[in-house]
Amino acid sequence: MREVAVFGAYGHTGRFVVAELLARGFVPVLSGRNAERLKALAVAEGGLEARPAAVDDPAALDRALAGTAAVINCAGPFADTAGPVVEAALRAGVPYLDVAAEIEANADTFDRFEERARAAGAVVVPAMAFYGGLGDLLVTAALGDWASADEVHIAYGLDSWHPTAGTREAGAVSRRRRGGRRVRYAAGRLEYRDDASPRLTWQFPEPMGPREVIGEFSMADIVTVPSHLDVPDVRTYMTVRAAEDIASPDTPAPVASPADGRGRSDQTFLVDAVVRRGGAERRAVAQGQDIYAVTAPLVVEALDRVLSGRVRTTGVASAGEIFDAVDFLGALSGHLSVELSV
Ligand SMILES: NC(=O)c1ccc[n+]([C@@H]2O[C@H](COP(=O)([O-])OP(=O)(O)OC[C@H]3O[C@@H](n4cnc5c(N)ncnc54)[C@H](OP(=O)(O)O)[C@@H]3O)[C@@H](O)[C@H]2O)c1
After folding, report:
1. Model confidence pLDDT, tens digit, residues 250-268
2. Per CATH, which fold does 3-127+296-322 belong to?
3. N or C: which end of the chain has fewer CB within 10 A?
4. pTM greater than 0.85
């Protein structure tokens, strides 16, 4: 069975996911709260099925998932959508994957559903996306035969970041939940702080080289990595230019580059994952184009692996725990270039 429900299908990321599903022979079933926008997308994609559903309408969510093999949730803020859509997936008995980049919402998914999902033999994969998923795969691959590490660092080398409305809204919801504080993962737990984030120079691999970054610019990896790896400190970093882009209300939303056949923007990224144990260091680096677009091959590859039984566990699990990280990254060679120095 190849039907896959996409909740939030007409959003910027949802559209990339729908296109990727079609490219890989799945049949997307379009869902979300706006019936008109769903219908327009269904027609534009050559006659897909549209099943409108709001998150406060469990019966409509059940209809949206009926007969599908899995659901991919692309509708954020996930603080609002993850709980109801995971519940619907558990009722339907199908796997759930999402692209949430909200630290607290991701932590909630682990806390609220871990026991029930495991007991039911269900699979729930939160943050199966650029933030949260890719970093976790890189860290897990870099660890190699190490069962633990003293420190994990993931530096995001983005040349720019033109955020979607969904990114801005998710950020605003997370900031409200934190009462304006910032969060980091240190000494084995999420820690909320009032001081300013450090600013430092990060030595990215060539050709990027040294760049100014905001330290402890925390992304979903501070939930996904420690969810399954024995590591007390997980730090993430963001190039200052990209951090300034998303802080400014004037930065435009992403647009497709006319030169790109896949609808990607010109944005480029380099993700530098460094793990340290004792005096030793291992590294995994990924490079590619457009953080929203690359989320689609990440989540659809994950879906394919879940549906074909290529998983290492059940319950709520992040990418690095549930998949063979090195094999997974290798399968994305058409979308990412990855270098491992283990
Ligand atoms: N982890 C990552 O790397 C990563 C990558 C890509 C995206 N994301 C996240 O994914 C989310 C979507 O991003 P986007 O780029 O696709 O943004 P977008 O283009 O603004 O789309 C947001 C989508 O979510 C829907 N939505 C919002 N609240 C909803 C609710 N309460 N019920 C039902 N639908 C709701 C919107 O529907 P309406 O138009 O009807 O409001 C729209 O379809 C964001 O939270 C973003 O942070 C994360």
Report:
1. 999 999 999 999 999 999 9
2. Rossmann fold (3.40.50)
3. N
4. yes
Q: Do the domains at 3-127+296-322 and 130-291+325-341 have one common CATH topology?
A: no
Which residue has the CA at smallest separation from atom 47 of ligand 1?
167
The pLDDT tens digits for 300-319 are: 999 999 999 999 999 999 99
**CATH fourth-level superfamily of 130-291+325-341:** Dihydrodipicolinate Reductase; domain 2 (3.30.360.10)
Question: What sections of 66-198 are H helices per DSSP?
Answer: 78-92, 103-120, 135-143, 165-177
Tell me if the bond preceding 254 is cis, omega within 30° of 0: no
Distance 54 CA to ligand 1 centre (A): 14
Is the separation of the CB atoms in 183 and 193 below 8 Å?
yes
**E runs forming strands in 14-165:** 27-32, 49-52, 70-73, 96-98, 123-125, 151-158
Question: CB of 75 closer than 6 A to ligand 1?
Answer: yes
Do the beta carbons of residue 289 and residue 270 sit within 8 Å? no
| Domain boundaries along the sequence of the chain | 3-127+296-322, 130-291+325-341
Residue 165 near ligand 1, beta carbon < 6 Å? yes
